[in-house]
Amino acid sequence: MRHLPVLAAKPFSCSQCAACCRLVGKVIPGWPVDTQTGACVHLANNGSCKVYETRPSLCRVDSWGVGPAWYQANYDACNAMQVALGIDLSFRVPQ
Fold first, then answer.
1. CA distance readout (Å), 69 to 3, 12, 46, 47, 66
2. If 82 and its partner were Cys, which of 10, 30, 44, 87 is the partner (CB 3.0–4.6 Å)?
3. Sequence-distant (≥ 6) Cβ neighbours of residue 90 within 8 angstroms
4. 3-44: per-residue pLDDT in tens?
5. Concatenated DSSP letters of 3-42
6. Could you tell me if 22 and 49 are in contact, meaning their C-beta atoms sit under 8 angstroms apart?
7. Distance from CA of residue 59 to its chain's centroid?
8. pLDDT tens, 52-86?
9. For residues 59 and 45, what is the distance between their CA atoms, to the nearest angstrom?
Protein backbone atom coordinates (compact mmCIF):
# COMPACT_ATOMS: atom_id res chain seq x y z
CA MET A 1 0.00 0.00 0.00
CA ARG A 2 1.29 3.45 -0.86
CA HIS A 3 1.45 6.00 1.93
CA LEU A 4 0.24 9.56 1.52
CA PRO A 5 2.82 12.30 2.04
CA VAL A 6 2.76 14.05 5.38
CA LEU A 7 1.86 17.70 5.00
CA ALA A 8 1.86 18.78 8.63
CA ALA A 9 4.70 20.77 10.11
CA LYS A 10 5.58 18.13 12.72
CA PRO A 11 4.96 14.42 13.17
CA PHE A 12 2.31 13.01 15.47
CA SER A 13 3.78 12.84 18.97
CA CYS A 14 2.64 9.41 20.15
CA SER A 15 3.09 8.95 23.90
CA GLN A 16 2.97 5.13 23.54
CA CYS A 17 0.15 4.71 26.04
CA ALA A 18 -1.49 1.99 23.86
CA ALA A 19 -5.00 3.43 24.34
CA CYS A 20 -5.73 3.08 20.63
CA CYS A 21 -4.51 -0.54 20.72
CA ARG A 22 -6.72 -1.31 23.69
CA LEU A 23 -9.85 0.19 22.12
CA VAL A 24 -9.38 -0.64 18.43
CA GLY A 25 -11.88 -3.51 18.55
CA LYS A 26 -14.61 -1.14 19.74
CA VAL A 27 -13.82 1.44 17.08
CA ILE A 28 -13.08 -0.69 14.01
CA PRO A 29 -15.38 -3.67 13.45
CA GLY A 30 -13.53 -6.75 12.30
CA TRP A 31 -10.11 -5.70 13.64
CA PRO A 32 -8.32 -8.79 15.02
CA VAL A 33 -8.59 -8.56 18.81
CA ASP A 34 -7.80 -10.72 21.81
CA THR A 35 -11.06 -12.38 22.81
CA GLN A 36 -10.39 -11.86 26.53
CA THR A 37 -9.24 -8.23 26.56
CA GLY A 38 -10.68 -6.80 23.36
CA ALA A 39 -7.28 -5.25 22.62
CA CYS A 40 -5.41 -5.58 19.34
CA VAL A 41 -3.85 -9.03 18.95
CA HIS A 42 -0.49 -7.33 18.34
CA LEU A 43 -0.44 -5.56 21.73
CA ALA A 44 2.23 -7.08 23.97
CA ASN A 45 1.81 -7.39 27.74
CA ASN A 46 4.25 -4.51 28.26
CA GLY A 47 2.13 -2.17 26.10
CA SER A 48 4.37 -2.29 23.05
CA CYS A 49 3.43 -3.48 19.57
CA LYS A 50 4.58 -6.97 18.64
CA VAL A 51 4.69 -6.03 14.95
CA TYR A 52 5.71 -2.36 15.22
CA GLU A 53 8.10 -2.38 12.25
CA THR A 54 5.48 -4.00 10.01
CA ARG A 55 2.34 -2.63 11.71
CA PRO A 56 -0.75 -1.99 9.58
CA SER A 57 -1.05 1.33 7.77
CA LEU A 58 -3.94 2.35 10.00
CA CYS A 59 -1.54 2.32 12.95
CA ARG A 60 0.83 4.74 11.22
CA VAL A 61 -0.72 8.14 11.95
CA ASP A 62 2.04 9.98 10.11
CA SER A 63 1.63 7.94 6.94
CA TRP A 64 -1.97 9.14 6.57
CA GLY A 65 -1.43 12.75 7.61
CA VAL A 66 -3.17 15.18 5.34
CA GLY A 67 -2.55 18.42 7.18
CA PRO A 68 -3.06 20.14 10.51
CA ALA A 69 -6.77 19.20 10.78
CA TRP A 70 -5.85 15.51 10.48
CA TYR A 71 -3.33 15.78 13.28
CA GLN A 72 -5.74 17.76 15.48
CA ALA A 73 -8.40 15.07 15.03
CA ASN A 74 -5.87 12.41 16.05
CA TYR A 75 -4.70 14.40 19.07
CA ASP A 76 -8.30 14.84 20.18
CA ALA A 77 -9.19 11.17 19.66
CA CYS A 78 -6.01 9.99 21.39
CA ASN A 79 -6.55 12.14 24.44
CA ALA A 80 -10.25 11.17 24.61
CA MET A 81 -9.30 7.47 24.58
CA GLN A 82 -6.80 8.10 27.37
CA VAL A 83 -9.50 9.79 29.46
CA ALA A 84 -11.93 6.92 28.79
CA LEU A 85 -9.34 4.40 29.98
CA GLY A 86 -8.21 6.46 32.98
CA ILE A 87 -4.66 6.74 31.70
CA ASP A 88 -2.39 9.05 33.68
CA LEU A 89 -2.20 12.68 32.53
CA SER A 90 1.53 12.32 31.91
CA PHE A 91 0.67 10.36 28.75
CA ARG A 92 -1.43 13.14 27.17
CA VAL A 93 -0.26 13.86 23.65
CA PRO A 94 1.26 17.34 23.34
CA GLN A 95 -0.10 19.52 20.58
1. 18, 12, 31, 28, 8
2. 87
3. none
4. 444 444 556 778 889 999 999 988 888 899 999 999 999 999
5. PPPP-SSS--------HHHHHHHHHSTT--B-TTT-SBTT
6. no
7. 6
8. 999 888 888 777 667 788 888 888 888 899 999 99
9. 18
